[in-house]
């Protein structure tokens, strides 16, 4: 029997992190931003059928970038967690923080114990009654959980998109202004993105129960034009 | 609560009821018969009437346990999702639980799959739930719902009636369930017209419940003293909307006025 080569734990973690980061960087970016009307979720996504942004519960939304099958599995697990919790307790007991913690546990566990880490970055977001009650939980491939304020960028070229977004973001912006800011941050100075390359949704602060609404192409087009 | 992750071959898919079973959140009731089903509150009469733009659903507010009134304000008409509603008669506890599970089943499917269940699919889901409840029904705790929804593909309202074994029957004009349904149905049969207006359908549903309450002790009439009125909802292209109590109070006032004239 041959002995496996010794690999320092630091090196092993670094290799895994590099592997996950590479996978995530291949995908296109996604921005979520708090605005006066709720939380805008805006992804660059040429597919009409494979969604990056979706509904988890009444006031909770989900967004994922990276490997589709991996974040979709997490999305469905989140819906199951939320619906089961709402069924056993009450609808108001379902919250984004506890779900984000669950995701962080799973991703952290997979990162250290499984053959390969998950090549995903996800966002769990909950819309409150006022913008300062909104929550954005950004969860990385290794289980790192970051509680973001104002806006959050996931996926490839996140640093450049974040920089552009910081220039345009404003808490007082309405839905359309926020969408326009997200799209221009995603596109950058050298490109323009049309509605057919975008997937846009809003967690509508004023909605009574289910707050998640997808924006139609026409709505996105008119928002970009503002 | 942990995050429910499954191996691909054990995955319950978009089926919430299966997920609940797998998670153990709702243990099966013990086997055996219920000695005295009469002590369990039972809900009674509900009706549904199709009109030009959709369906009206109405249910009285009484629950009875044997010969006692156990609740005066129970609700038996619920939204199933945005464009459909469900009304129940039978053992109140299991009926409420069935509605709750049915609502979640539809919402869960819509979220997981990214598209809503078809109206036909919703009616079938409810049929399976009634069927699964058959063992309890045989001990006297039966639940018999009515399901109604707006079918966007046809641009019309549709109605489904059930029996206690899960049998599903689509009705064209009207449906009713519960102990007062015989009297309510007669009233509806006499008053029903093709392509009725919404106002006429609402009035007919209220009259049907009024007459059912007059003949059946388990059906509650409008309680003017306490201000308790039936739960009435309309389901049309805009979705499920409950009719406000003030509106119902006015409509009942008109109906009672007409009845007083007949008797004077």
Fold and architecture overview:
The complex is a heterodimer of chains A (226) and B (264). Chain A is an alpha+beta fold and 226 residues long. Chain A has one domain: Glutamine Phosphoribosylpyrophosphate, subunit 1, domain 1, CATH 3.60.20.10. In chain A, the strands form 2 sheets. Chain A has a 5-stranded antiparallel β-sheet with strand order 8-1-2-9-10, with helices on one face. In chain A, strands 3-4-5-6-7 form a 5-stranded antiparallel β-sheet. In chain A, a hairpin with a 2-residue loop joins strand 3 and strand 4. In chain A, helix 4 runs antiparallel to helix 5. The mean pLDDT of chain A is 93. Chain B is of the alpha+beta class and 264 residues long. Chain B has one domain: Glutamine Phosphoribosylpyrophosphate, subunit 1, domain 1 (4-Layer Sandwich). Chain B has 7 helices and 13 strands. In chain B, helix 2 crosses helix 3 and helix 5 packs antiparallel against helix 6. At the A-B interface, strand 3, helix 2 and helix 3 of A face helix 1 and helix 2 of B.
Q: Under the CATH scheme, which class of chain A?
A: Alpha Beta
Question: In DSSP terms, counting alpha (H) and pi (I) runs of 4 or more, how many helices of chain B?
Answer: 7
CATH hierarchy class name of chain B: Alpha Beta
In oligomeric terms, what are we looking at?
Answer: heterodimer
| Proportion of helical residues of chain B | 25-40%
């Amino acid at each position: 029997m041959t002995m496996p080569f010794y690999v320092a734990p630091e090196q092993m973690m670094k290799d895994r992190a590099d592997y996950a980061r590479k996978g995530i960087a291949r995908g296109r970016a996604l921005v979520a931003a708090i605005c006066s009307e709720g939380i805008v979720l805006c992804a660059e996504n040429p597919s009409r059928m494979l969604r990056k942004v979706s509904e988890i519960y009444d006031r909770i939304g989900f967004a994922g970038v990276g490997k589709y099958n991996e974040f979709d599995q997490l999305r469905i697990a989140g819906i199951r967690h939320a619906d089961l919790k709402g069924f056993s307790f009450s609808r108001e007991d379902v919250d984004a923080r506890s779900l984000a913690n669950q995701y962080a546990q799973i991703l952290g566990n997979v990162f250290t114990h499984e053959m390969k880490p998950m090549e995903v970055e996800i966002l769990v977001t909950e819309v409150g009654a006022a913008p300062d009650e909104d929550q954005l939980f950004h969860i990385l491939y290794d289980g790192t959980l970051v509680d973001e304020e104002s806006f959050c960028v996931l996926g490839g070229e996140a640093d450049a998109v974040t920089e552009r977004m910081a220039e345009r973001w404003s808490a007082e912006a309405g839905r359309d202004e926020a969408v326009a800011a997200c799209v221009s941050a995603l596109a950058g100075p050298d490109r323009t993105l049309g509605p057919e390359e975008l997937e846009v949704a809003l967690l509508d602060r004023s909605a009574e129960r289910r707050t998640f609404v997808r924006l139609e192409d026409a709505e996105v087009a008119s928002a970009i034009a503002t | 609560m942990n995050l429910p992750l499954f191996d691909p071959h054990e995955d319950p898919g978009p089926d919430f009821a299966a997920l609940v079973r797998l998670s153990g959140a709702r243990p099966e009731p013990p086997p055996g018969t219920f000695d005295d089903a009469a002590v369990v509150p039972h809900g009674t009469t509900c009706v549904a009437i199709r009109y030009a733009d959709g369906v009206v659903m109405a249910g009285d507010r009484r629950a009875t346990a044997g010969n006692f009134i156990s609740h005066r304000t129970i609700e038996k008409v619920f939204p199933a999702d945005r464009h459909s509603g469900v009304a129940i008669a039978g053992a109140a506890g299991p009926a409420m639980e069935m509605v709750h599970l049915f609502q979640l089943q539809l919402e869960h499917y819509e979220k997981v799959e990214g598209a809503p269940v078809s109206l036909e699919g919703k009616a079938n889901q409810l049929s399976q739930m009634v069927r699964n409840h058959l063992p309890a029904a045989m001990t006297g705790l039966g639940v018999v719902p009515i399901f109604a929804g707006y079918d966007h593909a046809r641009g019309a309202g549709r109605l489904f009636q059930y029996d206690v074994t899960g049998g599903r029957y689509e009705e064209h004009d009207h449906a009713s369930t519960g102990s007062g349904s015989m009297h309510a149905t007669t009233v509806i049969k006499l008053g029903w017209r093709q392509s009725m207006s919404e106002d006429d359908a609402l009035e007919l549903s209220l009259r049907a419940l009024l007459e059912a309450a007059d003949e059946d002790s388990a059906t509650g009439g409008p309680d003017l003293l306490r201000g308790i009125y039936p739960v009435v909802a309309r389901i049309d292209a805009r979705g499920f909307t409950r009719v406000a109590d003030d509106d119902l109070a006015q409509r009942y006032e008109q109906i009672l006025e007409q009845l007083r004239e007949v008797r004077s």
